[in-house]
Amino acid sequence: MAPTLAQRHLPRPTRDWAEIQERMLVPLYEAVYERFEVGRHSHVLGLGCGSGLALVMAAARGATVTGADTDEARLELARQRLLPEPQWGARHWTARVLPGGPDGGPDGAALREGPPPTLVTAFDTLPDAAVLARVAQAAGRGVPVVLAGWGPAERCAAAPALRVAQRLAQRPAEPERAAGRCWRPGGRDDLEDLARRAGLRPDGSGRVACPFGYADLDSAVRGLVSTGLYDAAVRATDEEQVAKELAEALRPHVRPDGTVWMQNLFRYVVAMT
């Protein structure tokens, strides 16, 4: 899809995320929405909603949607998608977009202003336990919360490329930290532990294959860098070094036609407020 004029004025990582990378998680979004029968009687609250594709998919099913994020550039694109100006065409759903507060989470009072959610999701960025607890309190009792993350490294072909971010950032993975936009191999209990620290009760889980496919090596590098997982590596080195080493890590996945393909497994946990 060609970018709109407004999208062209967004930072390049935001455009790359929306145009290249975000769609790689569509199988995850679809699996969760199918499991919870998201439709016109649903209100989906997306934490770390990014540029809003997952919420657009929920809204297309008839759901009311609310999104929150601290990345203002991505949030602006979510506003364009979910709250279009009249000249961009009429929308046929009810949506709200909320900025994140100083601690990274949406304001509890703002959450309570709208209808209570029937489903809370954290697909791309995991909130910390304190934020998740506050959101759960605002949502009320008996609401499912879906926390998603990478599966085991051995089931994710992208893992070697993602390790480039850790190595260049000159710091080890932090196994005790299960929140934020960072990569670490998916442990069996990490998402459940986050849910319990927030006072939630784990109540099921699932695994979803999310293959990453790119038109060429340049698109693959741009798409992965747009995730935010390489930000610390860029600060520690520079964009050119990150792109060079990431391209080398991706070469084993380049097909004869020049496309790049990696099979990855994502997992999610359902927890009840």
From TrEMBL:
Residues 45-85 form the Methyltransferase type domain. One of its GO terms (molecular function) is S-adenosylmethionine-dependent methyltransferase activity. Signal peptide: none annotated. It comes from the Bacteria. InterPro entries: Methyltransf_11 (IPR013216), SAM-dependent_MTases_sf (IPR029063). This is Methyltransferase type 11 domain-containing protein. It comes from Streptomyces pini.
